[in-house]
């Protein structure tokens, strides 16, 4: 068996692993990458990029159907699924080829990695890599089916949705998180009769209540059946159909469809690493435990990205990969700061984007705040382009007006939120933000209205009350 020595070995060549390897190499370390394949990473192959490519098509289909509101009338659009998925494959192949070329600038070992000691990793049957530091970046995988009978009845997951050109006539979506919402709406717009079964009272229950309620309302308006406050019981087959039994409001109910979309989450992917041989602590659901500096309980072993179970976002994985690499190579113990990094977006239509602290977080912490919202339906540019769904919301400190967080449900939210991220980065107050010039008419200027309102609230609170003369 061949034994090779490196300063840093990175296990996993997705976004977090590649960022870690690149950073460590730039700092002068001898770095090796290990990946079991296929090369490219979750974001490129089975996540962000293929899903957003397909969503672009379904958004266009919806715009055509709604064109009469702008004086454009046409027949029901013809959906060419073969062309749609061929475009997706071509785009993803291009992204993957570019990443793979970059990965081959490192010593790259393709195969399953497993620890044989705290400093040694076996790759396949014939290579052992020894390193001073090891960074684990193996990502996540789709959670096992959590409902009795689902495995036996069969289902599709997000991987299958992104590759399946033959769509069912009807579909039950289990789960109301971002994956289920994005791809469930896509399927509905492709003509699939779609029903959501969700445990919470609204979709996107991890977000503020008003955000989830708005998306739920828009889905229902679009003809998507969202059944809330559901407790799943079991799944069975009935001929060629699949039946989900559940409890709702104390009553036993069931629904059947051609297919079931299992969208009940992902779990950290580390089962094959044999972490016990390295003494690394982990949990099947919450992932590999790390400290603020991304070290595991074994100081020279780090973990980054989805495998840690925290903030499953590509930009966070990249940030963690870079930080872990710097700490590994330099011996530093710099801590991760997620105040801005946890900003995120959900590519439903309308889109959802969040930056800073949410109302839910502020309330849980007992932090006082001022809040103001403004509807897209009251905004000139949104009315002109017929994108009136949603709202913007801003939270700020009642002491000094400093912006604490923001939420956007609406057109182009994923781009608009970056104004708020910049404002949060520089510690801007609502009054300062309101004074920044915003071009008219643009969607971006909608953010100035809650800022102006919060600034006015602060002025009003600080204005002394003069007693009337008697």
General description of the model:
The structure is a single chain. This protein is of the alpha/beta class and 470 residues long. It contains 14 helices and 23 strands.
What top-tier CATH class of the largest domain fits best?
Answer: Alpha Beta
Counted up, domains total: 3
Termini gap = 98 Å
| Structural class by sheet pairing and helices | alpha/beta
Which topology of the largest domain does CATH recognise?
FAD/NAD(P)-binding domain
What form results from the Cα inertia axes? globular
Compute the number of strand runs.
Answer: 23
β-sheet strand percentage: 25-35%
Poorly predicted sequence stretches spanning 5 or more consecutive residues: 464-470
| CATH architectural designation of the largest domain | 3-Layer(bba) Sandwich
Rg calculated over all Cα atoms: 25 Å
Largest pleated sheet: 7 strands, mixed
**What do the pLDDT scores average to?**
96
Q: What kind of oligomer do you see? A: single chain
Helix content: 25-40%
CATH level-four homologous superfamily name of the largest domain: FAD/NAD(P)-binding domain
**Number of helices in the DSSP assignment:** 14
């Amino acid at each position: 068996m061949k034994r090779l020595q490196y300063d840093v070995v990175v296990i996993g060549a997705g976004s977090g692993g590649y960022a870690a390897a690149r950073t460590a190499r730039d700092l002068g370390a001898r770095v090796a990458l290990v990946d079991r394949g296929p090369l490219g990473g979750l974001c490129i192959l089975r996540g962000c990029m293929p899903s957003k490519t397909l969503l672009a098509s379904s958004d266009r289909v919806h715009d055509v159907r709604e064109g009469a509101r702008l004086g454009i009338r046409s027949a029901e659009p013809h959906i060419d699924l073969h062309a749609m998925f061929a475009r997706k494959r071509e785009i993803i192949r291009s992204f993957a080829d570019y990443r793979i070329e970059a990965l081959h600038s490192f010593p790259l070992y393709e195969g399953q990695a497993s620890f044989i000691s705290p400093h040694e990793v076996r790759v396949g049957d014939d290579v052992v890599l020894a390193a001073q530091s090891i960074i684990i970046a193996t990502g996540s995988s789709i959670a096992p089916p959590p409902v009795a009978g689902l495995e036996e009845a069969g289902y599709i997951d997000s991987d299958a949705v992104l590759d399946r050109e033959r769509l069912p006539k009807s579909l039950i979506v289990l789960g109301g998180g971002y994956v289920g919402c994005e791809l469930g709406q896509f399927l509905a717009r492709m003509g699939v009769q779609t029903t959501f079964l969700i445990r919470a009272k609204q979709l996107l229950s991890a977000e503020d209540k008003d955000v989830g309620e708005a998306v739920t309302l828009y889905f229902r308006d679009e003809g998507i059946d969202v059944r809330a406050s559901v407790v799943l019981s079991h799944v069975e087959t009935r001929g060629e159909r699949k039946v989900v039994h559940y409890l709702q409001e104390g009553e036993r109910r069931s629904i059947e469809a051609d297919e079931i979309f299992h969208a009940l989450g992902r779990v950290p992917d580390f089962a094959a690493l044999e972490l016990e041989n390295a003494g690394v602590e982990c949990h099947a659901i919450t992932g590999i435990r790390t400290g603020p500096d991304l070290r595991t309980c074994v100081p020279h072993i780090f973990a980054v990205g989805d495998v840690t179970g925290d903030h499953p976002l590509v930009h966070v994985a990249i940030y963690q990969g870079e930080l872990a690499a710097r700490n590994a190579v330099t011996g530093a113990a710099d801590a991760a700061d997620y105040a801005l990094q946890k900003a995120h977006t959900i590519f439903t239509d309308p889109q959802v984007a969040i930056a800073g602290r949410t109302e839910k977080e502020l309330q849980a912490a007992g932090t006082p705040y001022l809040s103001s919202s403004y509807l897209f339906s009251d905004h000139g540019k949104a009315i002109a382009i017929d994108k009136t769904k949603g709202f913007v919301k801003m939270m700020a400190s009642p002491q000094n007006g400093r912006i604490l967080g923001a939420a956007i449900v609406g057109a182009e939210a994923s781009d608009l939120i970056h104004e708020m991220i910049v404002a949060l980065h520089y510690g801007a107050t609502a009054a300062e933000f309101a004074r920044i010039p915003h071009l008219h008419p643009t969607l971006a200027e909608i953010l100035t209205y809650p800022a102006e309102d919060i600034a006015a609230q602060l002025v009003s609170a600080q204005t002394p009350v003069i007693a009337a003369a008697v």
